[in-house]
Design a protein that fits this description.
Blueprint: H1 2-15, H2 21-35, H3 44-50, H4 54-59, H5 62-93, H6 108-120, H7 142-153, H8 159-190, H9 196-205, E1 217-220, H10 231-251, E2 277-280, E3 287-290, E4 296-301, E5 304-309, E6 311-312, E7 315-316, H11 319-331, H12 345-348, H13 351-361, H14 365-375, E8 380-383, H15 395-408, E9 420-424, E10 430-434, H16 441-459, E11 479-480, H17 487-505, H18 519-524, H19 529-545, E12 552-556, E13 565-569, H20 573-583, H21 588-610, H22 616-629, H23 634-648, E14 665-666
Parallel strand pairs: 4-8, 8-9
Antiparallel strand pairs: 1-10, 1-14, 2-3, 4-5, 5-11, 6-7, 9-10, 12-13
Helix pairs in contact: 2-5, 3-5, 7-8, 8-22, 10-11, 10-16, 19-20, 19-21, 20-21
Domain Choline/carnitine acyltransferase: 137-639
Organism: Characodon lateralis
Family: Belongs to the carnitine/choline acetyltransferase family.
Length: 689
């Protein structure tokens, strides 16, 4: 059934933005024109008829041959029209001027564009229908990037420092820069996206440090509502909701994500590796491995690992049946195998020791079978023996502990290599921990939003807090995974746990609900909520430190095919001017004027980043090319050192600041004020973003 769905989906995507029924209209139109003694093909139908196989000339009458030739011509014409429509759609999606126009001042060009986009969006698209029509990320002109870079660092430098930076940038542009730029343009001609593959490899997969905390991020449950306090029941509905989402992804039944309030589609490529995916460690670089399907999940409980089959004879188990199976695991009194309890610490520590252990001790025998069960699972689940949530007499403190638990847990009770791991707590609260290399936070946020909504409002629970549905008592029990952990592996587990625990202890995490006002109040002031928050962060940092630093905010580039993120350098001259005016006692009218200028500047920076005119990804790729060619640039080298020195201010240890800004997800790499700029952590092979 899935194969037939897949074939049909390929056909539907292949003809989009046309539909299959449009072939019939083309064929009828051609035949009707021929019936009126007219030749719309200008002789092509006759030529097709001449080249029909001899067997058809014998078996078909002259009229039948003409009819068949007309249908062949109709099909060719239809395919040509599809290509033309797809080319037109790509041109339309390449138009981004609409984003820079002010509300109420829409140009005639944009009005025509909106009309055409509405016409193209009438057919109901599948999840990946737009993929081949999305434009490729453009390579900005090197002079534009350097000018924007110099503008971004001007508020942070003295006149002499800025002059030195300017001279280095000009020398780079006139010498090495254009050579590196040519290589990027060549790559952009054949690559789907000239940034994303290098970004995934050098920023994520080549990092040799722990991915726990440094890369992985978390998502929370509802803060004020817990649908059930029964741990097994919450697990049953959560697993069911996730498997239903996976079914929608596989069948491409999800509506493509769009820019809010518009019909503009966003790239859906990140959805492909959401399930059945693992990041496997390597000595030099990790690898993302994805399996087409998986009918089971991997579960951790009190130091034991289990494989739970959620399908039987092609049928997804009901939520009540999954709850029944989960309860079997909770009631299982068997102790962990020697060395099994803290085995997950290998995924929390440094990557090279884990890669070496995996190659030496997990490549054969029972260890390989058990590891395969985890790595090939749809996703990973931890049945936590703690209670978490915003509860009790200290809701603020409990919320902090809840966040830290989702971020790193005990450093051994999560499998940080999985694309995402679900945590179900003893009191029914849940959450997730997601690995970052395969996708960015908004993709996981969409998954988590669907899961929470389906769990609470669609699947629901009985009056006593259990899942709905019937149970087939003949279900085979969950399969306990067997391990043979050698003393060498146990020693490495202890070493990795020490590294991970030190990292976890170094994290100060404070999460708090803010209810004084929200984005609605900000919008009433005709201010962008994002700009409001970023400028507020600049003000807070200035009051705390008495100065400014390089500031990173992530912007998506999914308007382009296989787009990931771009840096918005939200510390601008305008935001600094506002902060200085406010702290310097300027008049209220002057401060309001400067605040609006800073807000407009930030919005413009965000739009430029979204439309491929950012700074950091372009410079990152130039840096990668320079390393491939074995050439050195004083400009790129000086920028790297400057970024590192700024990055150590306000980011190391307890000075790490995070802003939860992704729909309940708190990723270490998103929407944060830090000193980290381009190549701020260039540790492995001098290429680490």
């Amino acid at each position: 059934m899935q194969t037939s769905n897949s074939v049909m989906n390929r056909v539907i995507k292949g003809v989009y933005p046309a539909s299959l029924s449009s072939w019939l209209f083309v064929a009828i139109g051609i035949l009707a024109t021929m019936y009126m003694q007219s030749d719309p093909s200008m002789g092509l139908i006759a030529k097709i008829q001449q080249h029909l196989p001899l067997s058809l000339h014998v078996s078909l009458s002259s009229q039948g041959q003409t009819m068949l030739s007309a249908l062949v011509f109709s099909t060719l014409l239809w395919l040509s029209l599809i290509l033309a429509l797809r080319f037109c759609l790509k041109l339309l999606l390449s138009y981004h001027h609409w984003m820079f126009e002010q509300h109420g001042r829409v140009s005639n060009t944009t009005k025509v564009w909106v009309t055409l986009m509405s016409l193209f969006s009438r057919n109901k698209p599948l999840l990946y229908s737009y993929q081949t029509s999305l434009p490729h990320l453009p390579v900005p002109a090197i002079q534009d990037t350097l000018n924007r870079y110099l503008e971004s660092v001007r508020p942070l430098l003295s006149d002499s420092e800025f002059q030195l930076k300017t001279n280095l940038a000009k020398d780079f542009e006139l010498t090495l820069g254009h050579r590196l730029q040519r290589y990027l343009k060549l790559k952009a001609l054949w690559a789907t996206n000239y940034v994303s593959d290098w970004w995934e490899e050098y920023v994520y997969l080549r990092s040799r440090g722990p991915i726990m905390v440094n890369s992985n991020y978390y998502g929370m449950d509802f803060l004020y509502v817990t649908p059930t306090s029964v741990q097994a029941a919450r697990a049953g509905n959560t697993i069911t909701a996730l498997m239903l989402y996976r079914r929608k992804v596989n069948r491409e039944e999800l509506t493509p994500s769009r820019v809010p309030g518009t019909v503009i589609p966003l790239c859906a490529a990140q959805c492909e590796r959401m399930f059945n995916t693992i990041r496997t460690p390597g000595v030099e670089t990790d690898e993302l491995r994805h399996w087409q399907d998986s009918e089971f999940v991997a579960i951790y409980h009190k130091g034991r690992y289990f494989r739970l089959w959620v399908y039987r004879a092609g049928r997804l188990l009901s939520p009540r049946e999954i709850e029944y199976q989960i309860q079997r695991i909770l009631d299982d009194p068997s102790p962990p195998f020697p060395g099994e309890e803290k085995l997950g610490a290998l995924t929390a520590g440094k990557r090279i020791p884990w890669a070496q252990m995996r190659q030496q001790f997990f490549s054969s025998g029972v260890n390989k079978k058990s590891l395969d069960a985890i790595e090939k699972a749809a996703f990973f689940i931890t049945l936590d023996d703690e209670e978490q949530g915003m509860k009790g007499d200290d809701p603020a403190g409990n919320l902090d502990r809840y966040a830290k638990s989702l971020l790193h847990g005990k450093c051994y009770d999560r499998w940080f290599d999985k694309s995402f791991s679900i945590v179900i707590y003893k009191n029914g609260k849940n959450g997730l921990n997601a690995e970052h290399s395969w996708a960015d936070a908004p993709t996981v946020a969409h998954l988590w939003e669907y899961t929470l909504a389906t769990d609470a409002f669609q699947l629901g629970y009985t009056a006593d807090g259990h899942c709905k549905g019937e149970v087939e008592l003949s279900l085979p029990p969950p399969q306990r995974l067997v391990w043979e952990i050698s003393p060498e592996v146990q020693a490495q587990v202890c070493s990795s746990l020490v590294v991970a625990q030190a990292l976890a202890d170094d994290v100060d995490c404070h999460v708090f609900p803010f209810r004084d006002f929200g984005k609605g109040c900000i919008k009433k002031c005709k201010i962008s909520p994002d700009a409001f928050i970023q400028i507020s962060l600049q003000l807070a940092y200035y009051r705390d430190r008495g100065g400014f630093c390089l500031t990173y905010e992530a912007s998506m580039t999914r308007l382009f095919r296989e787009g990931r993120t771009e840096t918005v350098r939200s510390c601008s001259k305008e935001s600094c001017d506002f902060v200085k005016a406010l702290e310097g006692g300027k008049t209220e009218e002057e401060c309001r004027r400067l605040f609006r200028q800073a807000s407009e500047k930030h919005q413009n920076l965000y739009r430029m980043a979204m439309t491929g005119a950012g700074i950091d990804r372009h410079l990152f790729c130039l840096y990668v090319v320079s390393k491939y060619l074995g050439v050195d640039s004083p400009f790129l080298h000086e920028r790297r050192n400057a970024a590192l020195s700024h990055g150590e201010r306000g980011y190391k240890g307890h000075e790490r600041r995070r802003l939860c800004g992704d729909g309940g997800l708190s990723p270490p790499g998103h929407s944060r004020i830090t000193g980290r700029g381009f190549l701020a952590s260039c540790r492995s092979n001098n290429i680490r973003g």
